[in-house]
Design goal:
Blueprint (H helix, E strand, L loop, with lengths): L1 H27 L14 H11 L5 H13 L14 H36 L4 H15 L2 H19 L12 H31 L2 H8 L4 H13 L1 H5 L1 H18 L5 H11 L2 H29 L7
Length: 310
């Protein structure tokens, strides 16, 4: 087990290094100068960046400077926000994105397992047909469309009610989180529902389920202990990639709903050509997602005792 974990961590480190390297050279080959005068960047910011990042040196030397700082946990300075470090931006705004992402994952996970189980239990009947139609809609429609429709729906509901049922935008209370988290988790919920349905249908016709029925085991116990527990294992395996999808989808949702998360800063950094924030947040998100995938792999072995990590 320890050997497996160490090997996965080594693979994760190599993956993060690759992400950092590709991001660095791609950003330095983009047209434009983030420190140009038309960006209204003060001379003080330019001096700080040149001293810290060695911008007057060749790109290869800049790369080694950046990697050395990154290994020490320093993602550098923002090219746009005066005297503000990328570490501070991540520290201040990632918790917002994390709270929104966790709530979206919870909604998507429970919803996907519930709706997937229902479609399997009512196979080829109207609940199955209705849920599958919604699943197709959830997979086909991008998150920014759901975000826009959700915001318009909130405006309409608030106008009809004559008071604010739920906030249209902003951050600060649980009410601000509900609709953005639901919108963010819809695509993942639809995918997990389809996966759960397929897994449940395979389990229903398996030999151990037929044996349990022949022994007279109550159907509720068969469903909870045999069908649901085994069918949920494939869902667990895709939680890592699902976190990635929710994280990247959060960039758009945070902008639409005015949520001060890290994804919103990433989008602004792209618009402003802020190399420091783009590289720092990309590497941070990459490391975070790699860690989540590793944790999911280990969790899979804990849930399924048949799996042995060698």
């Amino acid at each position: 087990m320890i050997r497996y974990v160490l090997w996965r961590l080594l693979q994760g480190v190599i993956t993060v290094w690759f992400i950092a390297t590709v991001t660095f050279f791609v950003m330095h080959n983009l047209p434009g100068d983030p420190l140009a005068d038309d960006k209204a960047v003060s001379e003080k910011i330019r001096e700080n960046l040149e001293a810290k990042l060695g911008l007057d040196k060749p790109v290869v030397q800049q790369y080694f400077i950046y990697m050395r700082n990154m290994v020490g946990g320093d993602f550098g300075l923002s090219f746009v926000h005066e005297n503000r470090r990328v570490n501070e931006i991540i520290r201040d705004h990632f918790p917002v994105s994390a709270i929104l992402g966790i709530l979206a994952i919870v909604i998507a996970g429970f919803g996907g397992i519930l709706w997937g189980a229902l479609t399997a239990l009512y196979r080829n009947r109207w609940p199955d047909i209705a849920i599958i139609l919604l699943v197709i809609l959830g997979i086909s429609v991008p998150s920014f469309v759901f975000a826009t429709v959700g915001q318009l729906a909130l405006v309409t509901i608030n106008n009809l009610a004559g008071f604010e049922v739920l906030p249209v935008a902003g951050w600060g209370t649980v009410a601000h989180m509900l609709i953005p988290a639901l919108v963010l988790g819809l695509g993942t919920m639809a995918f997990l529902t389809r996966l759960m349905r397929t897994s449940m249908l395979e389990i229903v016709s398996s030999d151990f389920v037929r044996t349990a029925k022949a022994k007279g085991v109550p159907m509720a116990q068969i469903f909870s202990r045999h069908q649901l527990r085994n069918a949920v294992l494939p869902v667990v395996t895709v939680l890592g990639p699902s976190i990635a999808g929710i994280t990247t989808g959060g960039f758009v949702v945070e902008n639409v709903f005015g949520i001060p998360g890290l994804g919103r800063y990433f989008v602004l950094a792209v618009q402003q050509n802020d190399y420091g924030v783009i590289m720092g947040t990309t590497v941070f998100y990459g490391a975070f997602l790699v860690l989540m995938v590793i944790l999911v792999d280990i969790l899979y072995a804990v849930i399924d005792p048949r799996v042995r990590l060698e």
